[in-house]
Amino acid sequence: MVSTPTEGNWPVTFPGNLRWSNATQIVKGMVAYGAAAMAEVDLIVQRLKARAGDADLDRAWMEEWSKEADRVAKIGDEADAAGNAITAGNQYMRAGNYYYSAERFIPPGADKMAMYRKALRAYHAAMERLHPEIERVEVPYEGTSLPAYFVRGAGSGRRPTVVLFDGHANAAGISQRGSAPGSSENCRDSRLRMRLRMTRPSSVTTSIRTRRSDGAAIR
Length: 219
Known about the structure:
The chain is mainly α and 219 residues long. The protein has eight helices and two strands; from the N terminus they run H-H-H-H-H-E-E-H-H-H.
């Protein structure tokens, strides 16, 4: 059995606050992919350390991460208006992750959904500019749909297709459009409930891909 992390065996950014330390490590792990910047994370950490005595720590966390997200997103908007799409996309990608981090400890409700929508807007803006080959799609499912991303294979003619169902926690949260029932987007907007067995949604997406190898049928 793996023991519970302690300050002796876990990177501790905030002594005595494992939640903040763990959540910060998650964001730091995105730096290698250009989805976060250590300088920006360090500034947020400094501000949070100054607020370690706040009565409402969850609010402090939300305010500092969203403050940095707003700043970075604004730079993205300005770069986009100037026609600098790649620069804008990079800003939006980091802003999306900071909004996602800000949303982490907000209780379920309108405020959480509002922050989530900010993250989604930033993520989508980043993908449109950095990865235009990735298409947002809706897979028909039980009277509604499963939100997903579609990446068309290189080349022409019939090509193999991989259908990936991500997890509910970080993977789905970061992608913001988990394609499994009760995963990420369709769970947040109450479209579908969490489901333990994935046989049904797996068969739906697989049969659609089988009918149309180019993926057109999922639109």
